[in-house]
Amino acid sequence: MIPSRKRAFTLVEVLIAIAILATAAIALGIGYVNVLTGYEIARQATVSEPEMRFARMQLLAQPDVELARQGGEFDASDGRRVRWTASIDPTQLADLFTVTFECEIVGTGAQNGQKVQQVFRVLRPTWSAEADRASLRAASRDRITKILERVNK
After folding, report:
1. Residue 73 host element (H or E)
2. Taking the CB of residue 136, how many other CB atoms lie within 10 A of it?
3. 79-133 pLDDT, tens per residue?
4. How far is it between the farthest Cα atoms of the chain?
């Protein structure tokens, strides 16, 4: 009769299992840290979003282009100070402007400041000079006429 052998894992098999377990633990740890970082970024974005929206509304409500370029500032409800400015450039279309909006939210105490820049276009007839509006409209009319002539040929 042959003596029975006890079955067991070899040292190589145990080391491979430990390596697989360590790799899985590292991957889970990295994923957890990424989730926490994402939550923090989302929290910071939602904290400043109402102030950004209010500053943009102040810009868009301003009928005078020079006052809009100067910007403004106000105190947020949580004691932070919000300053905004705007660079306003006319486009090739009448009453359409490219706005570079910069908003800085300065925190108090442990809160850090934030600075955000946004570029967007806005249609504001009150920001246009009448002479510029007339010449831009005439140029647009000429472009449309040329396009229609090419299409109708």
Report:
1. strand 72-75
2. 18
3. 888 999 999 999 988 889 999 999 988 876 545 678 889 999 999 998 988 888 8
4. 112
